[in-house]
Design brief:
Layout lengths: L36 H13 L12 H4 L7 H19 L2 H4 L10 E3 L4 H4 L10 E3 L8 H7 L15 E2 L32 E2 L6 E2 L14 H5 L35 H8 L24 E2 L13 H9 L2 E3 L4 H16 L5 H14 L2 H21 L11 H17 L1
Antiparallel strand pairs: 1-2, 3-7, 4-5, 6-7
Helix pairs in contact: 1-11, 10-11, 10-12
This protein binds a DNA duplex (15 and 15 nucleotides) through α10, α11, α12 and α13.
DNA sequence: CGGCCTTTGAAGATC
DNA sequence: GATCTTCAAAGGCCG
């Protein structure tokens, strides 16, 4: 995967983008290939105990910090097999027969007319998909979907709605197909900046990186090895987040069969095109859409809405933001890190995960960036009118505006 | 019981 | 365009 190796001029992030924030001490935590969570934990703990101390525990080369093979690779191995199988099923139409993600209303069907698919080779540039869209989704977003020629899916969005579901399940995670043409120039991965030490914890960290090239190519192999970060409804995991009705999906094209409640979830408050409000978040299959949070669980405060609007507001499902690459990575790796150490405190776990994230190679991170990009894309397709702002605390927003206004008044 | 902690990234808001 | 803020997940911890 030469394009990901960070060679000169590669799109993933030129070296000149890798702003060095390395501290005077240049203390980088050594992350060897078999680095354990225990070790990470120790580092975290020790650094928490004494922030300034032990700033020079170790340092190592970039190569060491970005090992080609990682202890986590077994996860990819397992998932790669799964995706290979999924791909095979797609190619022989198996997806229509037995979707791996029955609860997911959207499918990207491989374009079987694509000659490049027939030989089994899956060149990224050759991969195209026939996207299935909601039959009831007559929305701007879907219009964008229709235009598969659009080189920049990013333009449609980064507005993605997700509906939340049960615990620990993200709705958009069942993404398993990847189309190179959807590599969005608008959704560049940003990362891989040299680590710096967190002044507070002493743990190496990276400042919010500048974005890499908007184009982060992914080889077929990399795509195939993308581990499903959440694995919701992953058959082999044997943990269906949602019960699947006996007999499974009878509709030959489950992706096209959206019931009223689902369509309303997709549209409800966010799209003028939407249909009726959802009585509940159940898919046709009886599977609630995971991205939608029941209003009972979370209600968004509405600022200046009329009483009637309030009423509607109360019924609005909380559509969560799509997970970014790191979040997807965390979801996938958290359990493993927790298993490797006895620690369960998320704050500490997240520190470890953050360090591991930085230790990932570009290729490995690219998997998650691509997955996240797909999630955003799907999110925008499912909830065309949704905006991240919808989830902002209305109170905070108004307070903020008020503060700004008062400041201006003073001036 | 609700908010905090802690991470990175995306998106919106603001300057 | 740069910068700041919020939110996404997670679960222990604390007031």
């Amino acid at each position: 995967m030469p394009q990901l190796n960070g060679g000169g001029g590669d799109d993933l992030g030129a070296n000149d983008e890798m702003i060095s924030f390395k501290d005077e001490g240049e203390q980088e935590e050594k992350i060897s290939e078999n680095v354990s969570a225990e070790r990470d934990l120790d580092d975290v703990k020790s650094s928490l105990v004494n922030e300034s101390e032990n700033n020079s525990s170790s340092s190592d080369s970039e190569a060491e910090r970005r090992p080609r093979t990682r202890p986590d690779s077994d996860v990819y191995e397992k998932t790669r097999d799964y995706f290979s199988e999924a791909l095979r099923r797609q190619q022989d139409g198996g997806f229509f027969k037995s979707p791996h993600y029955p609860g997911y209303p959207f499918l990207m069907i491989p374009d079987l007319t694509n000659p490049y698919l027939s030989n089994g080779s899956l060149s990224p540039s050759a991969r195209t998909y026939l996207q299935m869209k909601w039959p009831l989704l007559d929305v701007p977003g879907s219009a964008a979907i229709k235009d598969s020629r659009s080189p920049t899916p990013g333009h449609l969005s980064n507005k993605v709605p997700v509906v939340q579901h049960a615990h620990h399940v993200h709705p958009l995670t069942p993404l398993i197909t990847y189309s190179n043409e959807h590599f969005s120039p608008g959704t560049p991965p940003s990362h891989l900046s040299p680590e710096i030490l967190d002044p507070k914890t002493g743990i190496p960290r990276t400042p919010h990186p500048s974005e890499l090239s908007p184009y982060y190519p992914l080889s077929p192999g990399a795509v195939g090895s993308i581990a499903h970060p959440l694995g919701w409804l992953m058959p082999q995991q044997g943990q269906h987040m949602y019960s699947i009705p006996p007999g499974g999906f009878r509709h030959p094209y489950p992706a096209l069969a959206m019931n009223a409640s689902m369509s309303s979830l997709v549209s409800s408050r966010f799209s003028p095109h939407m249909v009726t409000p959802p009585p509940h978040s159940l898919h046709q299959t009886g599977i609630p859409h995971p991205a939608i949070v029941s209003p009972a669980i979370k209600q968004e405060p509405s600022g200046d809405l009329s009483p009637s609007m309030h009423k509607d507001e109360d019924k609005k499902p909380h559509i969560k933001k799509p997970l970014n690459a790191f979040m997807l990575y965390m979801k996938e790796m958290r359990a493993k890190v927790v298993a490797e150490c006895t620690l369960k405190e998320s704050a500490a776990i997240n520190q470890i995960l953050g360090r591991r994230w930085h230790s990932l190679s570009r290729e490995e991170q690219a998997k998650y960036y691509e997955l996240a990009r797909k999630e955003r894309q799907l999110h925008s397709q499912l909830y065309p009118g949704w905006s991240a702002r919808d989830n902002y605390s209305q109170l905070n927003v108004t307070e903020k505006k008020w503060h700004i206004l008062t400041m201006k008044t003073k001036n």
